[in-house]
Write a structure and sequence with these properties.
40% of the residues lie in helices and 12% in strands. It contains 10 helices and 7 strands. The protein has a 7-stranded parallel β-sheet with strand order 3-2-1-4-5-6-7, with helices on both faces.
Length: 295
């Protein structure tokens, strides 16, 4: 799904891009649906090359779409797509995705760490298999995909790693509310913080992006009362437009660098000239939208 009819955006989308991803190659994890697919579609509208690595190769009984149907949408939107069934927890799958991207498109310009698992259970209730799943996908998967893509990103003119993870808010509230999930998401954010510092001399930008409000995703809809919860959410297109702005933009923070930032979608889009966020809502008024966690 996308709000844009063309690369410049339709009247339904308030975002007017200043740059383009045409000809750029993007490797994204977990891009077969939701926010990941919306980001990929926005890049495809520019004529980007998208390498999709996701687990869903066959239709899922509860989740819409596969990596192959997503690739068809990307091609229809104007991009070139390479669908790969793979798991970020598997070293061989990630190695294969990086190699395939370089072989098919000649390199990698951006890596988007989108794959993530969520369980908001408190410590007494969390199942340790779920704990391990979140650590393996969120933390290890982000680290592994970023690590293995580094040689290709160094060879790119302006390589970028963008991770969908929150600012490192050390207010005790967030650790005490859902410790297992907080640890997993902050592990992704620490990867951004560390790689931005480590790669300063390599010409690779490393940033994180996080929504200000709940975003309508299958993960939320599958939660208890999820269909009601998403009525107070925005659509994933706001994250797609924000990711596009980060990947095509220069310095979004006055006085700061282009790397090591923990951006919010509203901050990025406001810097790109968006003043009205209502088109991204799903029917709820702005004052009824539910803020996302960690902010």
């Amino acid at each position: 799904m996308t709000l844009s009819d063309d690369a410049s955006g339709s009247p339904a989308s308030p975002y007017r891009p200043a740059g383009s991803l045409h000809g750029r190659t993007i490797l994204i994890s977990g891009g077969s649906r939701g926010i990941g697919l919306a980001i990929a579609l926005r890049a495809a509208e520019d004529g980007a090359n998208i390498v999709l690595m996701a687990k869903t190769g066959e239709p899922h009984p509860k989740l819409e779409g596969t990596v192959f149907t997503a690739a068809e949408q990307l091609e229809a939107a104007g991009g070139r797509a390479l669908p790969l069934v793979g798991d970020v927890r598997c070293d061989e799958d990630v190695e294969r995705a990086v190699s395939a991207a370089v072989e098919r498109f000649g390199g990698i310009d951006a890596v988007i760490n989108n794959a993530s698992a969520i369980d908001l259970s408190r410590t007494d209730a969390v199942d340790m298999k779920k704990y391990d799943l979140m650590q393996d996908i969120n933390v290890r998967g982000t680290f592994l995909l970023s690590k293995l893509a580094l040689p290709a990103l160094r060879a790119s003119a302006g390589g970028h790693i963008l991770t969908l993870s929150p600012p490192l808010n050390l207010a005790p509230h967030w650790a005490g509310k859902h410790l297992a999930y907080t640890m997993a998401k902050y592990g992704m954010s620490l990867t951004t913080l560390g790689l931005a510092e480590e790669l300063k001399a390599d010409g690779i930008s490393v940033n994180s992006l996080w929504p200000c409000t709940l975003i309508d995703t299958a993960a939320i809809r599958n939660m208890p009362h999820g269909e009601q919860i998403v009525q107070a959410a925005r659509g994933p297109q706001i994250m797609a437009d924000a990711a596009h702005a980060v990947l095509t933009g220069a310095n979004l923070r006055s006085g700061g660098g282009a790397s090591g930032n923990f951006y919010t979608d509203e901050e990025v889009l406001a810097a790109a000239g968006v003043a009205d966020f209502r088109p991204y809502s799903l029917g709820a008024s702005e004052d009824r939208l539910v803020p996302d966690i960690f902010l």
